[in-house]
Design goal:
Largest sheet of chain A: 5 strands, antiparallel
CATH class of chain B: Alpha Beta
Structural class of chain A: alpha+beta
Shape of chain A: globular
Helix content of chain A: 40-55%
Number of strands of chain B: 6
Number of strands of chain A: 5
Strand order of the largest sheet of chain A: 1-2-3-5-4
Order of helices and strands of chain A: HEHHEEHHHEE
CATH superfamily of chain B: STAS domain
Helix content of chain B: 25-40%
Number of helices of chain B: 3
CATH superfamily of chain A: Histidine kinase-like ATPase, C-terminal domain
CATH class of chain A: Alpha Beta
Shape of chain B: globular
Strand content of chain B: 25-35%
Largest interface: A-B, 33 and 24 residues
CATH architecture of chain A: 2-Layer Sandwich
Number of domains of chain B: 1
Oligomer: heterodimer
CATH architecture of chain B: 2-Layer Sandwich
Distance between the termini of chain A: 33 Å
């Protein structure tokens, strides 16, 4: 990156009101650090405690999704948390296996069609029927994110090659 | 058998399981993979269920829990439900702070699935 881009990047991050952005390998230690940083930033903000807790909760699920499912060989992913007007926005990006993108897309579409009660029902069904995977994932993450967010989950897949798509997700809280 | 006492960490809750029937989980439960952490709790409850106290009171005072934990917590509650079915008094108290409707809702979720006495306890601060 050229030196004059530093100011451009600074301006951009300021305009977008970015609280934290990260791109790189998602490890368990990194996850702990990101949560610590965001939690301390949230503590300084004059927001309702209820909202801060919700943002933190959704963030936990989002970055643990990245930790478990960033599917290129190096587990690289991106995360941006920003504040737009009265909403917190969490955006994530990662490579995903083409096959898995199909089932994920079906799941997200299903979630986006459900209202509050429908989401609760789907959550309860998945919680009582489901089993944990080897990774300890319960298949509940996106349902939980949608319940806490109260908004539709915006997403897109960008085809990369025959093996991977790039998965972008936006959550508004 | 011995009591189970675990100090909380950034991602795991403080555990105090006493053979006298007072069990408490407190803090955060957000490990990436909760299976390993909850195995020791489940093992303890299995052993305890063979020699339970007259009454078992489980206080759950969680600040955050992730979806990986939510499944493990349900499994743990189901073990307590089995104990309750043997006729032993067993109660789960789910604590939530008065302004934390999400944690209240999470308690209601479990209450809807379980048949064991499950109380939601509203407090000012956990």
């Amino acid at each position: 990156m050229e030196l004059d881009k530093v100011f451009q990047l600074f301006k951009f991050m300021e305009q977008e009101n970015i609280l934290l952005s990260f791109k790189g390998v998602v490890t368990s230690d990194l996850l702990t650090s990101v949560l610590q940083i965001v939690e301390s930033k949230l503590n300084y903000m004059e927001e309702e405690k209820r909202i801060k807790k919700r943002v933190f909760h959704v963030l936990i699920e989002c970055i643990q999704n990245l930790y478990h499912h960033a599917e290129d060989t190096e587990n690289i992913a991106m995360l941006v948390i920003s504040k737009e007007k009265s909403n917190f926005i969490i955006k994530t990006g990662n490579y995903i296996d083409v096959e898995r993108s199909k089932s994920l897309s079906l799941k997200l579409d299903k979630i986006n069609k459900l209202d509050k009660d429908g989401l609760k029902q789907f959550y309860l069904e998945s919680l009582s029927d489901g089993n944990l995977s080897q990774k300890g994932t319960a298949g509940l993450g996106f349902i939980d994110i949608a319940r806490k967010s109260g908004n539709k989950l915006n997403y897109e897949f960008i085809p990369m090659n025959e093996k991977y798509h790039f998965f972008s997700l936006e959550i508004k809280i | 058998m011995n009591n189970l006492t675990l100090e909380g960490s950034a991602k795991t809750p403080t555990i105090s399981f006493d053979t006298n029937g007072k069990l408490e989980l407190k803090g955060r439960s957000i490990p990436e993979n909760s299976v390993e952490f909850y195995k020791q709790l489940n093992d303890w409850i299995d052993a305890y269920s063979n020699v339970p106290a007259t009454s078992t009171i489980v206080d759950v005072k969680l600040e955050y829990f992730n979806t990986s934990s939510s499944k493990c917590i349900l499994d743990l509650f189901k073990k307590l439900e089995l104990l309750h079915r043997t006729g032993r008094e067993t109660v789960i108290n789910w604590y939530y702070e008065s302004d934390d409707e999400d944690m209240q809702e999470a308690g209601l979720d479990y209450k809807a699935i379980l048949t064991i006495p499950f109380e939601l306890v509203e407090v000012e601060e956990i």
